[in-house]
TrEMBL record:
One cellular component (GO) term of this entry: plasma membrane
UniProt family annotation: Belongs to the ELAPOR family.
Lineage: superkingdom: Eukaryota
Entry membrane topology: Single-pass type I membrane protein
Location in the cell: Cell membrane
Gene Ontology biological-process entries: positive regulation of BMP signaling pathway
PANTHER family: ENDOSOME_LYSOSOME-ASSOCIATED APOPTOSIS AND AUTOPHAGY REGULATOR FAMILY MEMBER 2, PROTEIN CBG13728
Protein's name in the database: Endosome-lysosome associated apoptosis and autophagy regulator family member 2a
Transmembrane intervals: 893-917
Alphabetical keyword list: Cell membrane, Disulfide bond, Glycoprotein, Membrane, Signal, Transmembrane, Transmembrane helix
Chief subcellular location: membrane
Presence of the UniProt keyword Transmembrane helix in the record: yes
Length: 1000
C-alpha cells in the first residue's frame, strides 16, 4: 500500500516533468519567492518528504525536487522556527516571536486565518415565519479580544489544528452573565466529540471585569475546537457577551515562520517567545522591535498603545475629591486630585482648572462599634464593649451581651475590611484610585478609565457567629446584610450585588438597571461560611475607551452586616443568665427557647409557634404558626404534616395529603422568547414538611461538575433548596447543545404560612376564578407560602398558593397545572398560583360515604351489600363492610298466611252478616206486630198498650204466628212500595185461626 508521502512525491515529480515541458516553451526559472515548502504526511516508518508548492500554478518552471524531511517528532524550542530551506531551527528576529511547538492568537483586529464563526438558526420557533435570522450573529473582533453574540442564536467559533504529539489549548475569557450559555468542546476529524469532563466543557462564571484562564489537553491528530454560545433572553435585560483572548495551542510539529508582534507590543532581542507591551506614552506598529515615544506635551498613550492620542482640555471629568484622615482638631481636608494617568491639558481654551484643595470640614462621627481616641482616628471598641460611634466604648449591662457585626454609615476613609478596584473590560486592572470614592455620608463610584469599566467594591466576611443565647439554635439564618443605595444614570448603567461563598464561584444576587431612587435591600445568609459581598457598577455595556458618562454614579449610603465573626459591637442585646446564684455569665438557650427579659431565663416557645431569630427578646419573638400548620420540635419553622381537617356545619372532612408524595414537579410550556427560543419553566413543590424533604432546583450550566447526589441535596454553589423553586429549562434539541440546560433557579417560597379553604391568608389571595370551576361538594384546600427576600420587582418578596382539588379521575400522585391565563405560573411576577388535582386530595372516607343495598330473600336467605356513594369523593379511611347473609321468610309462607287470614276473615264476615240479618228480621217482626195490633177495627189498644195483650207472651205469639219468608222478588217489591210513599206492606200470616185476616 503506497503511503501518502510517496504519492505527494510522485505528484511533485510529475509537476517537475510538466515544468520541464513548459520550460521548453520558454517559461522562466522559479525563484525562492515563487514557491514555499511543506512536509508530506508521515508514513508508517515515521518518514516524510519536503516538497515545494508553487505560489501560483504554471507561473514558472524548475521547482526544487522533493527531499527527505526531518523526523516526524522533530520540533523547535520557544523563540525558534524551522527554516525549511536548511531544515534547521533558527532564532526569530527582533520584532517577532515563536512558541516553538505552539501557536498563539493575541491580535483580534480581524478574524485570524483558520478561525471561522458559524451561526445556527433557531429550529424550534412556533411558526417558521417568526424564526429570526442569525446571519448577523457572529463572534466580533474587538482589537484585544473577541466578543460573542448577545442574542439567542447559537454561534460557534471554530478552529481546526493537526497535532503531531499530545498538546494543549489554553485561552483567557470573561463570562459574567449566566443568561448566555458558554461551552468549549473538541471534535476529531470524524466529527465525533472527544471525551471531556463537564468541568472542562462548561465554562464557569467569572467576576465582572476579571479574566479567567481555561486549559484543556489535546490528543495527537486532528482537533477541531469549538467555542459555542447561545442566549436565553427571558426579559428586556441586556445580555453581557463572552469575551475571548490569548488563544494558545501547544503540540504542533513545527513553526515554519515567526509571528510578528502585534501593534502596541515589541520584542527587542532575537529568539523571543513573547512580545512585551509598550510602556505608557509610547507606541509601536506591527512587528516592532522597539517603541516610539509620544510627544507628551500634546499627546498621550496608554500602556500597549498602537498610536498616540491628542490630549483633550481638562474638565470636571478629569479630577475627583478625597477626604484626608481626621486631625487632632477633628477636622478633615478636602483634596482634589487629577485622575491618573492624567491625559488632559490645563491652560488651554475650554480647560477646567483643578479646584483648590485644603478646605477643612468637621470629621463625620465614627461608625457604630468604633470610638474616637486621642489620635483623632476611629478605633474599634475592645471585646465586650460597645459604642454608637459618638460616645466612648461602654460595658454591656448585666443580663446583656454585645452584638457583633459591621455598620458603616460614615465614609471618611475606606474601612480596613473593604477593598475597591477597577477592571477594564478589554485589558486588565485599572488604577485602584478610580474604583469607589468615599464622600462623607456615602461612598460612590469613581471615574474609571472608560465608561464600560467595572467599578468594584468588596467586603469580606470570614464567617458568622450567632449571639451566645442563640448559639444552640438550628435556624436557617446566620446573618444578614442590608445596604441603602441609589443610582443616577443617563446611559444604560447597571449596579450588581454579588456573593462568593467559600471562594468557589461568584453569583449575582440582584441587579438594578438605570436610575433607581434611594432604597434599601436585604439579603439573608442561610449558611455559616466565608463570604465576599461585591458591588460592581458599569456605566454602559457598550465598548468604550473614553469617559463620556462620568457623572453617572452609584451611591451607597450605609452597609450593615449582622453576626460577623470579626465584627465590632454597636449595641447590646438581652441574654440568658446561668442558673447559678448571682452569676452574670450568658449561656446559650436550647433550640426554640426565647429569653424572658424579666427573669433572664430561657423559656420555651408555646406549642405550634416558631422563634424569629432577629426579633426582640421576649414572648413576642414566638410567632404563631398559621392554620393547618405546626412547628418543628426546635420551633425554627412551621410546616404542614399533610393532615388537614375542615368542619362545615355538622360535617367534618379529614384529609391526608401524604399520598401525593414528598415533592411534586411541573414543567409547563413550551414557551418561546421574543426571538423564538423554546424553553420550559420547571417548578418543584414540597407540599409537606413531615419528612423534612424540600424541593431542590440546580443550575447545571455553570455547575455541571457536581454529582447527581450533591445536586439532589442542594449542595451545589448555584442550588436552591426550599418549599417551592423554579428553573428555566432549555431542551437540547434545536440549539446544538448536547444536554438539556437548567438555569435561573430562583426561590419562590421558603416560609409556609398555612393551609385553609379560605381564599385569603396573610395578605395573599388565591384566585379560584383562574381555574375551571368544579361542581364537586368537596372544597379546595389552599396552601399559602411566602419568600420574604425582596427583589427588584417584588419589594415584599414572592408568594405562592398551591390549590389542592379533589378529582377522583386523577391518579393518587395527581397532576400539577398553572392557570391558562398565566402560563408562567404568575400574572404579576410576584404571586404564583398552582392547581394540584388528585384523587389523593379527596377527604378520608367515613361511614357516610357508603350505603346498604338489601338483596331478595331466596330460599330463606337474604344478602346485604355495601357500595360507595357515587361519585366517590373520598380516599383511604374506612373500608366497605363485607357482604352479609341473613335468614328470612320467603313469599310462599306469606302467601299461605295471607290466604288463611283471608278465609278466616270471610267466614267471620259471613257469620256476622247472618247474625245481624237474623237479628234485623226479628226486630222487623216485632214492629209489624205492633202495627197490626194498632189497626184492628174492633178494638183499639190503650195509649199505654205495647200491642201485646196482657197475658200473652212472646213465645205464645211465636207459636201461633208463622210467616212465610218473602222471596227476593217480594223484597224488591216491598222496597219499591216503600219508595212510593206507602206506609205499610201486606204480610201473609199463617195462624191457627184459619179465617182470621191480619193487616199489617
Amino acid at each position: 500500500m503506497r503511503s501518502s508521502a510517496w504519492f505527494v512525491a510522485s505528484c511533485a515529480l510529475i509537476l517537475c516533468t510538466l515544468g520541464l515541458i513548459d520550460g521548453a516553451k520558454g517559461q522562466r526559472q522559479c525563484s525562492e519567492t515563487d514557491y514555499y515548502y511543506e512536509y508530506t504526511e508521515c508514513d508508517s516508518t515515521g518518514s516524510r518528504w519536503r516538497v515545494a508548492i508553487p505560489q501560483r500554478t504554471g507561473a514558472c518552471t524548475g521547482l526544487p525536487e522533493p527531499v527527505r524531511g526531518t523526523e516526524c517528532t522533530f520540533s523547535c524550542e520557544a523563540g525558534e522556527f524551522l527554516e525549511m530551506s536548511a531544515q534547521e531551527c533558527t532564532q526569530c528576529a527582533a520584532g517577532s516571536y515563536s512558541l516553538g511547538s505552539g501557536i498563539r492568537f493575541d491580535q483580534w483586529d480581524s478574524m485570524p486565518a483558520g478561525f471561522s464563526s458559524l451561526a445556527t438558526s433557531l429550529e424550534n420557533s412556533p411558526r417558521e415565519d417568526d424564526r429570526p435570522t442569525c446571519n448577523s450573529s457572529s463572534w466580533l473582533p474587538q482589537g484585544n479580544y473577541l466578543e460573542s453574540n448577545r442574542d439567542e442564536c447559537t454561534v460557534s467559533l471554530i478552529y481546526a489544528v493537526h497535532l503531531k504529539k499530545q498538546g494543549s489549548v489554553s485561552f483567557e475569557y470573561q463570562y459574567p452573565d449566566n443568561n448566555l450559555l458558554f461551552e468549549f468542546f473538541i471534535q476529531n476529524d470524524q466529527c465525533q466529540e472527544m471525551d471531556q469532563s463537564t468541568d472542562t466543557k462548561w465554562l464557569k462564571l467569572t467576576n465582572h471585569g476579571e479574566w479567567a484562564t481555561h486549559t484543556v489537553n489535546l490528543k495527537s491528530g486532528t482537533n477541531i475546537l469549538y467555542w459555542r454560545t447561545g442566549g436565553m433572553l427571558m426579559g428586556t435585560k441586556v445580555v453581557k457577551p463572552v469575551l475571548l483572548k490569548n488563544v494558545q495551542i501547544e503540540g504542533v510539529a513545527y513553526t515554519s515562520e515567526c509571528f510578528p508582534c502585534k501593534p502596541g507590543t515589541f520584542s527587542r532581542v532575537p529568539g523571543s517567545s513573547t512580545c512585551e507591551p509598550c510602556p505608557r506614552d509610547t507606541y509601536s506598529g506591527h512587528g516592532a522591535s522597539s517603541c516610539t515615544p509620544c510627544n507628551t506635551t500634546t499627546q498621550y498613550a496608554a500602556e500597549g498603545s498602537a498610536v498616540c492620542k491628542d490630549r483633550p482640555p481638562c474638565s470636571k471629568k478629569d479630577y475627583f475629591q478625597i477626604h484626608t484622615a481626621c486631625d487632632h482638631e477633628g477636622k478633615t481636608q478636602v483634596i482634589y486630585k487629577w485622575i491618573e494617568p492624567k491625559i488632559c491639558l490645563e491652560g488651554v481654551t475650554g480647560a477646567e482648572p483643578l479646584r483648590p484643595s485644603g478646605a477643612r470640614e468637621p470629621c463625620p462621627p465614627c461608625n457604630p462599634g468604633f470610638y474616637n481616641n486621642d489620635t483623632a482616628t476611629c478605633s474599634p471598641c475592645p471585646p465586650g464593649t460597645y459604642s454608637d460611634g459618638e460616645k466612648p466604648c461602654m460595658q454591656c449591662p448585666a443580663g446583656t451581651e454585645p452584638t457583633l457585626g459591621y455598620e458603616y454609615k460614615w465614609w471618611n476613609i475606606l474601612p480596613v475590611n473593604m477593598k475597591t478596584s477597577c477592571f477594564n473590560v478589554g485589558n486588565s486592572k485599572c488604577d485602584s484610585m478610580n474604583g469607589w470614592e468615599v464622600a462623607g455620608n456615602h461612598i460612590q463610584s469613581g471615574a474609571g478609565s472608560s465608561d464600560n469599566d467595572y467599578l468594584i467594591l468588596n467586603i469580606h466576611v470570614p464567617g458568622f457567629k450567632l449571639p451566645t443565647s442563640m448559639s444552640g439554635h438550628s435556624g436557617t439564618e446566620f446573618g444578614r446584610i442590608t445596604f441603602e443605595f441609589e443610582t443616577l444614570c443617563t446611559a444604560d448603567c447597571e449596579l450588581y450585588f454579588m456573593m462568593d461563598v467559600n471562594r468557589k464561584s461568584t453569583t449575582v444576587v440582584e441587579s438594578w438597571e438605570k436610575s433607581k431612587t434611594r432604597q434599601t435591600y436585604t439579603h439573608v445568609m442561610t449558611k455559616n461560611a466565608s463570604v465576599s459581598y461585591t458591588w460592581a457598577f458599569q456605566r454602559t455595556n457598550q465598548p468604550s475607551d473614553v469617559r463620556r458618562y462620568v457623572n453617572d454614579v452609584a451611591r451607597i449610603y450605609s452597609i450593615k452586616v449582622s453576626n460577623a465573626v470579626d465584627g465590632v459591637s454597636s449595641g447590646c442585646r438581652a441574654c440568658a443568665l446561668s442558673t447559678q446564684p448571682s452569676s452574670s455569665t450568658c449561656v446559650p438557650c436550647p433550640p426554640g427557647h426565647y429569653i424572658d427579659t424579666l427573669t433572664s431565663k430561657c423559656t420555651e416557645c408555646p406549642r405550634n409557634t416558631y422563634l424569629v431569630s432577629h426579633a426582640t427578646p421576649g414572648p413576642e419573638a414566638c410567632k404563631p404558626c398559621g392554620p393547618g400548620s405546626k412547628s418543628d420540635k426546635d420551633h425554627s419553622y412551621c410546616y404542614s404534616d399533610c393532615d388537614f381537617t375542615h368542619t362545615e356545619g355538622n360535617v367534618t372532612l379529614t384529609f391526608d395529603f401524604s399520598v401525593l408524595g414528598s415533592v411534586g414537579s411541573l414543567m409547563n410550556g413550551p414557551s418561546f422568547t421574543s426571538k423564538g427560543t423554546k424553553y420550559f419553566h420547571e417548578f418543584n413543590i414540597s407540599l409537606c414538611g413531615r419528612h423534612g424533604q424540600l424541593a431542590v432546583c440546580t443550575d447545571n450550566v455553570t455547575d455541571l461538575s457536581i454529582t447527581d447526589s450533591q445536586r439532589e441535596k442542594g449542595e451545589g454553589a448555584n442550588s436552591v433548596k426550599t418549599f417551592i423553586c423554579q428553573s428555566t429549562i432549555i431542551p437540547a434539541s434545536g440549539r446544538g447543545f448536547h444536554t438539556a440546560l437548567s438555569s435561573q433557579s430562583i426561590n419562590l417560597a421558603d416560609t409556609f404560612l398555612g393551609a385553609t379553604v379560605d381564599n385569603t391568608l396573610d395578605g395573599i389571595r388565591a384566585r379560584p376564578e383562574l381555574y375551571p370551576q368544579t361542581s364537586k361538594k368537596v372544597p379546595d384546600v389552599n396552601f399559602y407560602y411566602r419568600s420574604f427576600e425582596a427583589t427588584s420587582s417584588c419589594d415584599s418578596g414572592r408568594s405562592a398558593v398551591v390549590t389542592l382539588r379533589c378529582n377522583p379521575e386523577k391518579s393518587t400522585k395527581g397532576e400539577l397545572s398553572v392557570p391558562s391565563q398565566c402560563p408562567a405560573g404568575t400574572c404579576d411576577g410576584c404571586t404564583f398560583h398552582f392547581l394540584w388535582e388528585s384523587s389523593g386530595a379527596c377527604p378520608t372516607c367515613t361511614e357516610r360515604d357508603y350505603h346498604r343495598i338489601e338483596g331478595a330473600c331466596k330460599r330463606g336467605h337474604q344478602d346485604l351489600l355495601y357500595v360507595w356513594t357515587e361519585p366517590k369523593l373520598c380516599v383511604g379511611g374506612v373500608t366497605l363492610p363485607e357482604k352479609k347473609t341473613l335468614p328470612c321468610e320467603g313469599m310462599e309462607f306469606w302467601i299461605r298466611l295471607g290466604a288463611g287470614l283471608g278465609a278466616f276473615t270471610a267466614v267471620l264476615l259471613v257469620s256476622l252478616t247472618c247474625y245481624f240479618w237474623k237479628k234485623n228480621k226479628r226486630l222487623e217482626y216485632k214492629y209489624s206486630r205492633l202495627v197490626m195490633s194498632a189497626n184492628k177495627e174492633c178494638e183499639m189498644p190503650g195509649a199505654d198498650s205495647c200491642a201485646v195483650m196482657e197475658g200473652e207472651n212472646e213465645g205464645d205469639m211465636e207459636d201461633e204466628v208463622v210467616y212465610t219468608k218473602p222471596s227476593l222478588l217480594g223484597k224488591l217489591k216491598a222496597i219499591a212500595s216503600k219508595g212510593n210513599g206507602e206506609k205499610y206492606e201486606n204480610v201473609q200470616l199463617n195462624s191457627s185461626h184459619s179465617k182470621a185476616l191480619v193487616w199489617s
